[in-house]
Structure formats: C-alpha cells, structure tokens
Design goal:
- The protein is elongated.
- Helix 5 packs antiparallel against helix 6 and helix 7 runs parallel beside helix 12.
- A five-stranded mixed β-sheet has the order 2-1-3-4-5, with helices on both faces.
- It starts with 7 loop residues before the first helix and ends with a helix.
- Helices cover 65% and strands 7% of the residues.
- By secondary structure, the chain is of the alpha/beta class.
C-alpha cells in the first residue's frame, strides 16, 4: 500500500508551504535586522558658532560619540536651518550659557529628531541649562509623527505586487503587450487610491496631491512591470521574489521609520537607490522641503520603471520565441481532451497562485 506521506497531493501542499515558510524567515531577518536595534551610525549633526571655542566643543562632542556622530561646525543659525531643510544634517546644536538650543526637522525623520535630542540633552545639562528644541520642519497635525508616508508606501506597494499575480497568472493567455498595458492601467488606479488616502481621507498631503499621484504612479508602475515580466520566468515563485524585493528589502530601507543613519550599513546603503526610498523621500520633498532633492528621487523611480520596461520586453521576446504547441496526431477528440486537461491544470495553477498571493 502506498504511503500517504509520499502522495502527490501532500507533496503539492508541501511545495506551496515553502513560500510562507521562506517569507517567515525573510521577514524576520529583514524587519528585525533593520528595526530592532536602531542606533546612530555617522549621523550628521552641526554645532553653530565660529572660532576656536566652537571647534573645541564640536571635537569634544565627536570624541564622546565616536562613530555614532559626524560633527561639523556652521557659522550661524540660518546656515544650520538650511542644512536641516536640505536634510544634510539631522540636528544642529546652538551652544549658549543660558538657553542652548537644538534645531531639528522632524518631518524628515521623527526618530532622527528624537535620537539627536537624546544626544544633546545631557550636553546641555552638563552646561547647567535646559535644552530648548526647535522644530524647523514639523509634519502636519494630521500626521504628528511623520510616519504616515511609510504606511502610504505599504498600501501602494501591496496594491502593486498583489496585482502581479492577477495579471501574470490569470492573464497568462494575453500577449505580453496586453499584460504590460494592464500593468500601466492598474498602476494608475493604485496611485489614485494612494492619492485619495494621502489627501481627502487621512490628510497627509495638504497640497501637491497631483504630484503625489505622479510619484505613486511611477513607483507602482515600476513594481508591476517588473513583476509581470518576471512572472514569465518564475511563475508561482514570483510572489516570493516580489516580497523579497518590494517588502523585505524595500520597506526596511525606505527611511519611512528610520533614516539610514539610524540603521546598519546594509539597509543604509539600499536607501540610496531603492525605489521605496525614492518614493518616501520624494513625497517628503514635495510636502515639507520645497521640492529640495525631488529630482534625484524622481530619477530613482524612473530608473526602476526603466528596469520594469526592460524586463517585460525581455519576457515578451522570450515568449514570442518559444515554439508553438501543436496538437498530437490522431482522432479529433484526443487533442481536444488533452488541451482541455492542460487548460484546466493551468487554470488551477493560476487560481492557486492568485489565492496564495492574496493570502500573503
């Protein structure tokens, strides 16, 4: 009697269980590696003032902090504010015997502002004066921590990569051109949902809502086109690949919760070119920092979109180059039965893949 342990049905289930188990491992490594122990790593700060006394003070702060801080001096408060609004420094300390002041821009990173406050509060206490904290770029009242953009990123990302299975699996009978056009259209709809959430629903964006939609469309279209192209080669493993690219590595390096100076070198380096960081930092530039740095973030998203177009083009060429399946010789009924069985198996596989993706 054949052992049920080796039955095809059980092997089929175990194969499908590989995806959630690998996701469990990957999500644990990514999220815990990126978020569990945030510590400053060469976090840029400034000390306001000039002359030997300021230079000695800045060097003292640097020596006490070690690799946690990169300390520079700036001549005046206006220069410090400009550096904060261009996000070149996380905080700027203005020494004073009576009212020492710390300048922060919490819209860039609430966690970063908190980290520099923890650094300079004891410094001010050592001087015998309470620390005054001034936020030169606060987030809107509807998003007091400034982390709403991170959750907007999550919503747009889920709408994008979850749609890949529907287009790639359920739309397998369509040409690659048709699937690519569907991806472009779906990305416009996902971006529209994101803009509605950011504007009328949760009021994260009090202006530039059309530009927010444009950033969301660039971001979503890149994900969808990459996924639709990869599906040609990876099939049901596309879901796991998309989760690795656009959840595990993407959310953790986006800067939505912790900017790169509060993360280890791996996730900090991804922040420089990953698409989630391009979206989050680009929308921050639009909403809070007068478009400063916007061009670079837009080009980051354009580059990912170009990758998506290239992947779909390669997949389309590969599909067109495959030899056509010809019916087997014999009575007319035989090929029809074979085709129906093949179509039924493909439909089941597509349905399983879609259900697996939605469940994840």
């Amino acid at each position: 009697m054949k052992s049920p342990v080796l039955s095809p049905a059980l092997r089929h289930v175990l194969t499908h269980l590989l995806t959630p188990l690998l996701m469990c491992i990957g999500m644990g490594l990514a999220y815990m590696g990126a978020f569990v122990t945030p510590e400053p790593h060469h976090m840029p700060v400034a000390v306001v003032g000039s002359g030997p006394r300021t230079a000695v003070f800045a060097q003292t702060v640097k020596d006490a902090a070690g690799d946690k801080l990169d300390v520079r001096t700036v001549p005046d408060r206006a220069t410090a504010v400009a550096l904060l609004k261009s996000r070149h420094v996380t905080g700027a300390y203005v020494p004073s015997a009576h009212t020492p002041e710390l300048l922060v821009a919490s819209a860039a990173s609430d966690m970063g502002a908190t980290a520099v406050e923890k650094v300079f509060t004891p410094v001010a206490a050592h001087e015998g004066a309470p620390l005054k904290v001034t936020d030169v770029a606060p987030p809107v009242q509807d998003d007091p921590t400034g982390q709403g953009l991170f959750f907007l990123l999550i919503a747009v990302s889920i709408g994008s990569y979850a749609s890949v299975a529907a287009i790639g699996a359920a739309g397998a009978a369509l040409s690659m051109r048709a699937r690519a056009l569907l991806a472009v259209g779906v990305s416009a709809a996902v971006a529209g949902i994101g803009a509605l959430l950011a504007g009328p629903v949760f009021h994260l964006a009090h202006h530039a809502l059309g530009a927010v939609w444009g950033m969301a469309w660039l971001y979503s279209a890149g994900i969808l086109l990459i996924g639709v192209g990869l599906h040609t080669f990876l099939k049901r493993w596309t879901t796991l690949t998309m989760m690795v690219l656009f959840v595990m590595l993407n959310f953790t390096s986006s800067g939505g919760l912790f900017r790169p100076e509060l993360q280890n070198g791996f996730f900090g380096s991804l922040h420089a070119f990953w698409n989630g960081a391009g979206f989050v930092e680009g929308v921050r530039s639009l909403l809070y920092f007068g478009d400063d740095g916007l061009g670079r973030n837009v080009w980051t998203l354009v580059a990912w979109l170009a990758v998506g177009l290239a992947v779909t083009a390669i997949a389309g060429a590969w599909e067109r180059g495959r030899p056509a399946v010809t019916p087997a010789p014999g009575p007319h009924a035989a090929p029809a039965t074979s085709e129906e069985a093949e179509r039924s198996a493909a439909d089941r596989e597509a349905e399983e893949e879609t259900e697996e993706t939605v469940a994840v």
